User: Fold these one by one.
Assistant:
Number 1:
Amino acid sequence: MQHASDNWNVANFVVILSVIILFKIVTAQKGMKTPFAACIGLFTVILLAFTVRAHWWGASIGILIASAFLLFKILTSRSDRIPTIRRIAGLNAIDEAVGRATEMGRPVLMIPGIGQLDIPALQGLNIFGYIARSVAAFGNRTILAVADPPLAGVGEEVIRDAYAAGGRPELFNPDDVRFISDRQFAFASGVAGLIEREKVAASFLMGAFFAESLIITEVAQRTGTIQIAATNQFTQLPFFVATCDYVLLGDEFYAASAYLSRNPTLLGSIVGQDYAKLLILVVIVLGVIATGYMELVHTGAIHDSSATDSLTKVADYFLKMFR
Amino acid sequence: MSIINHIFAPIPSSHPLFYVAFFLTILVGLGILALLQILPNQARKPIIALVTFLGGLYYTAEFFIPVPTGHDGNFLSPYMDTMSNIASVLGCFSVGLGIISLIGLHFKNTIKLKASWGFSATLIVCFVVMTIFTLLDQYSPKGMLIPKVANKSVYQFLFSGGLTSLDAAMFALIGFFIISASYRAFRIRSLEASYLMASAVIVMLGQVTLGSALTHNIPHAYDFFKLENLSEYILAHINSPAQRAVTFGLALGALATSLRLWLSLERGLYFDQEA
Amino acid sequence: MNSNTIWEKLQSIDTRILYVVTLIVIALPMLFPQIKLPIVPSQESIDCYQAVEEMGATHKLILINGAFSASSRGENGWQAQAIIEHLMKMHAPFAIMSIDPQNPQLMQDIVDKYAKKYDYVYGRDYVNLGFQVAFAQTVKGMVQDIKGTVKEDWKGTPLTNIPVLKNVKSIKDVSGIIDITPVASLDTWLGLATRVYDTPLVYVPTAVMAPEGYPYKDSKQIKGILMGVKGAGDYEYLMGVKEEGTQISTILSMVYGLIILLIIFGNIGYHGARISAQNAQKHGSE
């Protein structure tokens, strides 16, 4: 869809999911409540202006109720309860991998994917910042190989700051942040050569990967590198599982920064995502029930009556909402 | 054309104002950079947060503001081209930075004769040769004789004969690597692994003519047990729901990360210090 | 643990031997074309074929998106070849657009292979729109105005001068989109283009990317999926021709058989070593 007007129901559903996530982020931190409450108030006024003008009274009442509920929850929530995240094996193995690399005296390689400067790459860099701080504390070397020039600039900042935070700024070498190539297989062959020549001991692959992932991971396997991988590309997960020691599946990748840092904002975001997933699950279950019900009506298994007529209208309206 | 589109409209190099606009842009850019350097950290952060917010706000607003009936977009839509051009220009500068960093590194390795300097020298030679022949191919005046190999320009020869062939060769390596990876990794160590193995074998055979040939003679009444049908069932009814579930999780993760980046709620790498 | 037992040897065959065997298995059907296996087209391939038939029957322009380069030509190239030959057989007009710099030439080479046979003339029957730098922006623009967005073909000729695009203004005037791709371009087409005028979309990915299309096929957002080289072989079978796709389907079968065999050897070795170790322990303790 090019604009929200193509399907307001889907657009509004995404807004609801966003509000749930933001709500959980905001209530996890003390300092954000007032500005967020002010924004909720402002948006409520703007939305009411639209809906009242268009005489959408149902929508106006819904907006008022939702805003009141949100404001109440924001202002009365406690931010001293820090949510917990279940154990993620791949992330627990980071320290083991970094320690092993230090013992062997070999560098650590990080690859934020082959995509451009986008969400998966930035998430990868976030995680690498944490890992690089550990590597710096151990006094080891980090190599960051990127396939997008802007990522080289951002990555250099991240790794430099990580080494400074780890107390070893003098160990940072700008030449270790390398733009290899933006061509997929030129990048793969460059990284494969890097792994072989530098005898990398630990390799972290976190970001968007495509066909080149197997080349990189298989070469690293041969050199005895311990590998931890995460990607947003579903189709590459089997290759990582076959060749890497640890793999973060699905949104464990996006939960990684919260898991490693235990930052309340990020933990709140993860909780918000889980609530959003719960909402999607409820919608799916209702959709399945509605679809099944409509099938029964169309095949004549359920006969028309005043009770079923209302149910049929509700089911039909619900199904049409997301088409 | 609105004022904003007019200001940011590309100017052809033949236009008299081109060089004025060029130098003015560089001056303004340097001025902004200098200002950001002078400002203390505490003052810089709100500016960066504001620019980030405004940048994201445009696309969000353009998506959500209703489109009047009979129109293709709302009042923000005409500026989409301008925003794309800005992004493209930024991308071009960053490509230049990438090339400078790449060549600089390999040049240093070659001059200092570091380990594997031969590879660095090869890269530099290939880069220079390709650049020269690409420029010759694209910009040589008409009628000028350009070197040819096997009836093609050297650029075409290097691109089609060199780059594309090497690309294909690297992709072909995956075939060999998957064989060694599968052989090494797929061991039935548990019940779940045996389910995985069974479904993998069914799907693999069902995807190729070998599977169709093996179960070709199954009676029509038991068509479901033909490997291609079993494979389709596994992909469509078992794999797809799992894939959708993973996709939902990834999409929500991306949504949350995008929101945090847009609203500058994303902390730096040393989160606990800032928190 | 004794690494010289048959069980250990089965588990640790040298990778060089594996690669040589793979080479032989790939080469044999190429050297001896009599080695072939019967083709049974999958339902997805049949649906894809029928969808393209329906698109072609309208005799309106079909938009083919080529996203592959030389690296994935081994799969997408044969798929593109089969589909383009099919379109030419139906004498359906088409436009090729590319989102990889290598793709325009690769697609043109495929078209040139059959153009003489089916009397296809550039400009009259088809056009090559060339490489489009910004994929999402181009698709968004094409939804409303193809000629205004793309402006020129791959050789620099203004699209307004190309006869096959005479009655084509936007995606609305296109009978369907065929996405031949090794990358995740499906979401862009579905999100930006097909919903606006309910334009049929056929997804032609490499085998690895194919599972991504199943949820959309299930919800009828795409009309068919043609998966990898096997899909190309199926397509040729449905068309009644035997080109490279058919031969490579046989090679693929043999390689898959080899992989399964090797996995079986590895597991026999693993479990044999395990049982052997357990027995040795039992006899040792008795």
Number 2:
Amino acid sequence: MKNKIIPYLLLIPQFILSGLFIAGLINAIMISLGIMPSLGLNKLTFDYYIKAFLRKDLFDSLTFSFYTALVSALISTVLGVFICYFMINTKRGISWIVELPIITPHVVTALFIISIFSQNGFIARLLFMFNLIKDQQEFPVIVYNSGGIGIILGYIWKEVPFVIYFTASIMSNINEKLGDAAANLGAGAGRIFFEITLPLCKNTIISAFLIIFVFSLGAYELPFLLGATKPKALPVQAYEQYLHPDLRNRPYAMALNGIIIAAAMLSAVFYYFVLKSDIDKKLKNKNLNTCII
Amino acid sequence: MKKYKKDRYISGVITAIFAAAVILPVLTLFVWSFTQRWAWPYIIPGNFSLNAVIDVFEKLKKPGGILISGVVLSLITALLSVIIALMSAKALLFYNFPGRNALLFGSILPFIVPASVFSMGVQLLFINLGLNNTLHGVMIAHLIYSLPYALRLIMDAMSAIGEKYEEQARVLGACGIRAFVDITVPMLLPVSLTAFCMAYIISFSQYFLTLLIGGGRVITFTIIMVPYLTSGNRNFASAYSLVFLGISVIIFMLSKKAAAISNRQLKTQLY
Amino acid sequence: MGLVIKDLKVSLMKSEILHGISLDVKDGELVSLLGASGCGKSTLLKAIAGLTETDGGIIEIDGSVVNETAPEKRGSVIVFQDLRLFPHMDVGNNIAFPMRLRKMSVRDIENKVKSLLHDVHLDGFERRQISEISGGQMQRVALARAIAAQPKLLLLDEPFSGLDEELRIEMEKLVAGLHKKMEITTVLVTHDKREALYMSDRVALMDCGNILQYDTPHNIYYNPNSKKTAEYFGRVNYIKGNIKSGIFTSNSGIWKTKPGDISDDTIEDGEYEALVRPHNIGIIKDGGRYVVKSISFMGEFEEISIDTGDKTVFIIATGGYCLSNSISIGNYAGISIEAGMVKFLKADILK
């Protein structure tokens, strides 16, 4: 007989960790709304959010981060799905190629981008060797580029493998089960991909996109190491405001963080429903198979 | 048949390009790690040196140094993640209780809320709890971020196995805990090891979280590496990256091996 | 002793699946729960074993109420339909599992595994992996493992349904043999009426979370208490009529309700329907006034339908009967009913 108390006992560590996490978020949101009792700020206000859109430096950070996150997430998702579709056809034993970038920390990814794409990086040296450029300065500024090209490149290197990792198992399952059936009915490779594989993997692909989008929106490492001094990415700007000697700047930091949280929450709600419907489906199937029959 | 061959060919080419894009940057690590100076515009470094690599091993050898705060910290975090994920997954999948959906939602949140946001929000709380600037404080912060990955992997596998083997063990005379430990856990061993690796990687890769919660006192790989990178010491940055990446790869491979061996042993143990 | 269930109610996902089941199984008896899929028989099995929460009622195993007892302490072992052999253990370890839980010595376990494997005709299979053995062999390992748990009550959940016919018959014989030898009280869930009738001391026919009838195989077949029960075991002919002082009168004939007795006072006068199995009706070639409508030859037997004017009567005869007696479609024929094999159901109960 299932004891009512068992699930709660099992979840004690989860409760503590989730509790700490939520407490951190609530604290950030409170401060962003102008509530900081230690500084005598007690009035609820949306001023800091409004300022985030009105102050040029803050607004630039906002647009810059949304832009780099969107571009890198879109490219990574499309490329990832595309490569994944081809990779599942090839032999096994190459999974480590996908795992390697996932293992690699972002700070190391930044090092790669610098070593390869900076003005004295590997590509610049290659171009010089073939006489395509005569000087370091002729090589375009990719790494500390104010358009965030270096950051986007870094994210693509990290996230394409993530998308592959995230979608490979469901995609190969679908291909095995339905691809053959569709091919048997006369569908070509392209048709199978767009009409069968893609619609059935839709939830997984969207989840992958959301995860990497929100991650690159809020991650500090790559923009800190590969970004230009202006405009600053959201998390870099937020941390700067956070570290400001005048503690009254903290609400600005938290307002920027609050915007990231809002974007994250929207994605989380979506992701949660996808995850839950999958679990419910599985449990329902299980019940049908073993309980009722 | 012809068409099939063409597909295989395209697949091969695309996979090869992808593999090259992944591997080439990693190769630059090897070159830079053993380089003293690499002047423009040479395509091969001028003089090689072991200085950077020696420095890494000197630091690793020091007792109580970055081996503990860099590697052991992440290993313990990963182990705790797997244990907690097993417990949480069991509760979330096989029990229906008030608050289940809220917890399920809460459990995936760190997946999607960036660590920088969380760390700025929680730093004050950690200071008040006396967790800031401590190893265990950093471990707790890392745990919050590595757990969702472990949980997702283990929940997937556990829901695929379902409760049926545990039910069978129960009716054969095993108590609930025994059934979980003797049946479910060994069946989940391979995925648990994957989850362990994932959690290790997440912990080991954290920079901002470690910086804020560790306050510069808890020295992990990223904390050591970033100053070299920002000051343009590419050879030292590369050497640290190479060694720590190597440790991660070894942990990954050992886990895979361990899964295979333990599986075999379990199957043929003598009563 | 054995198993006693009183007024057991079970709900799954807020809808009631079992509506007050009562059942008693004597010590050493083999009872079948028979019914279509979805009738609640597997749920009943899980409730007995403690894997499903109950809403009300009493479950008693060997004289003690087990409603609040954990599954592992009830002494009831299920062999599930999907067998659930632990994939991470070999055959020997699977069978040893319940014995290890009882902390038997390694030597005792080894001997017991050997003798159990012998009982299920799998000598020498100790070190085989589950993935290496066939479906029928897996079935036998699951059975041996269940017996190794020394159950007070053995619950078999459609254990033979996945097997082809030959293997199924072999497994049924094996289980019947083991049951006879070990005298374990056994409940067998099945949807196969042939299996239920052949294997069991008594059969409980279930439908929509209720037990329709619980009786010996012979009685449940020849003495059904409702049309539903009767029809579950095969086609039935209904003949309307009335009974007066032990004489049944209908359009299809007049006969005594108890052949041999002059008057039968065990049966009340009134409107009745006579239930006659197709194989208890004979065909008379000459002198009939009914028309042969169809003859379906099925090898061992053949099914003949005869139009009596107001209804169709089905008859089962040995295969080839019509051909050898030169009866063909369109012929006139009569019928003869084995009066001793007829069950009378009161008409107002039927409505």
